[in-house]
């Protein structure tokens, strides 16, 4: 293993992820582990140079106080105890805190600043090979950042022992399924099963207008398709997953209650009992992107904006019809193209079009029309809990409107959504 590591033991402080990030920002790898880890388990982790014990407000869990085992206090690995048994107050100033961490990490633990993506990738390749041996791994590859980076990492580690399944549910953005095939099958020479599920998903969704019902149908059908593909393949023992560190935090730990459940494996039948391979589970989102870039994935994949799992299905409002689905896909492609051309691509957090189930009267070539309208939304946010509206230049909006109304079939009107979150959500459904 190439990297030294500082282990943060989770005694319930909500700032543990922040501490791990601060240590990584010093160039030293850091992982968080549960408080009930045994000394043997701790020693089995690679290159542990030091431990941080950070006791916080959740140290009493389910009515009982929690602590790490005495053997860990007694072992020879240097430990920093903060806010813990009253030993050492944690410096509150940013600079003092950094100095305290630097002193612990470099002087007391003698850790080397050798955390970088090349070393991370080299270590993960070795760990994946150890875990998988000569067995086969299956991965659902949506083309989103996390699944794409896991795919690239697994391809590097085990090549053709990996089978990627890409399900095109017909609700992806323009060009996305093609890009997945091009990058992974053509350029990386991966085993890629491309499933054209367009009719199947759209048939299931026909006439369903209620947003949560649409989400459920899309999720359930996805699992069914993936399961069918898994059964066609022989001897799969592992399931690759793009779990990243924020997913784990949101799912709750032994000391912090779940914010939301994490349903990546979402209901695969029990007889398909795969062991998970989750090489990104300790990475924050920006680190996942850096990893993808180091693995040679294109920027358009690594830096792409967030996109909901149910895809355009929740942007084609109400009951999905094929004509409106095409209109939302085409108008979204024009919006993305114009934002990229005008320097807004990396600046705006999320931008897309939505199409309501609403026609309005218009005029085209001196004839009365009755056609759909398209809504443009462009928002900025830090955590998606609140959002502000991007101040898109008016002449650009007019240009995009002119393009959409002339190039997208069946659309005669374009609206710009000025609503912040709250009161609106980011998506319309
Ligand atoms: P809202 O609309 O709740 O969206 O303000 C916040 C963020 O979450 C995304 N979003 C989803 N992502 N499945 C997802 O994976 C979903 O069903 C879903 N609904 C919303 C949305 O795009 C925004 O980034």
Task: Characterise the protein shown here.
- It is built from 14 helices and 16 strands.
- With 429 residues, it is α/β, with parallel strands linked by helices.
- A hairpin with a 2-residue loop joins strand 4 and strand 5 (64-65).
- The strands form 4 sheets. It has a 5-stranded parallel β-sheet, with helices on both faces.
- Residues 215, 306, 308-310, 350, 384, 421, 425-427 line the site of xanthosine-5'-monophosphate (XMP).
Topology:
Blueprint: E1 5-11, H1 16-25, E2 29-34, H2 39-44, E3 48-55, E4 60-61, E5 64-65, H3 70-74, E6 79-82, H4 94-108, H5 117-132, E7 136-140, H6 145-158, E8 162-168, H7 176-187, E9 191-196, H8 198-205, H9 211-232, E10 236-240, H10 245-250, E11 275-277, H11 285-294, H12 299-302, H13 322-341, E12 350-354, E13 359-364, E14 367-380, E15 388-389, H14 394-407, E16 411-416
Parallel strand pairs: 1-2, 1-3, 3-6, 7-8, 7-10, 8-9, 10-11, 14-16
Antiparallel strand pairs: 4-5, 12-14, 13-14, 14-15
Helix pairs in contact: 5-6, 5-11, 6-11, 13-14
The protein binds xanthosine-5'-monophosphate.
Xanthosine-5'-monophosphate binds at residues 215, 306, 308-310, 350, 384, 421, 425-427.
